[in-house]
Structures are given as C-alpha cells and as structure tokens.
Amino acid sequence: MIDVKAERLIRIADVPKLPWLASRHGEPVSVATVHAWVSRGVRGIRLRTLSQGGVRVTTEKWLLEFFARLSGESVVMMDVQPPAVVAVGRTGPLRTGVLAGPLA
Predict the structure, then answer these.
(1) From 41's CA, which of 2, 15, 69, 71 has a CA 20 to 30 Å away?
(2) 78-104 burial by CB neighbour count: b if 16+ within 10 A, else e?
(3) CA-to-CA distance for 73 and 83, rounded, in angstroms?
C-alpha cells in the first residue's frame, strides 16, 4: 500500500516533465514511451502505477525502482532522492546517480 501523504502521485502524462528524467539526447522522454513502460514494460519489467480517479499515476520512487530493476541494481537503495540534473551548456543535461550512462 502506498502512503499518499509521503509519496507525491504523478500523472503518467506528467512523467516526461520531471526535471531529472531525460533521454540520451537531453530531450524529454515521450509520453508514449512512458505508456509503453506501463503497458508492455522493458525486458519484462513494467512501471508500477495505480488508478486515481480514472487517471493512471505513478511515483518518483516507483520510477527509480523501475530504472534500478532495468539496470540490475538492488531496489533497496530507493530511499534516496532522484539524482540532480546538471546543465552542461548546449550539449544537454548530465545525469548522475541511478540514471548515469546511456539509457538503452
């Protein structure tokens, strides 16, 4: 069960707007990509969601757990905050932490 007082629910359509979530080229991830993470998943791993008032929502914690599972990392470390995005001129953001490196 999710503690809605502790976790901020994020509409699936708003996931690409998260400042720390970017594609390899620094562009926002497509909403269609996020929907694919929910419905089809990646390598059998699906993004966890729930329905709130007929709208699909997720949390930053569930997003981080999804990426950790994809990278084969332990999900226990998910009590940390999302990694910061550091602007690097015009070449796009530099990701650190859980999302470091190219996203496949």
Answers:
(1) 2
(2) beeebbebeeeeeeebebeebbeeeee
(3) 15
Residues 6 or more apart whose CB falls under 8 angstroms from that of 15 comprise 21, 29, 31, 34, 58, 63
Rounded Cα gap, residues 61 and 64, in angstroms = 5
Of 31, 3, 5, give the one whose Cα is nearest residue 17.
31
73-103 per-position pLDDT tens digit: 765 544 445 555 555 554 555 455 444 445 5
- Look-up of token digits 């069960």: 1
Which alpha helices (DSSP H) does 2-104 contain, by range?
Answer: 31-39, 60-71
What is the C-alpha to C-alpha distance for residues 72 and 91, in angstroms, rounded to an integer?
28
**Residue 42 pLDDT class (50, 70, 90 cuts):** very high
pLDDT exceeds 60 at position 5? yes
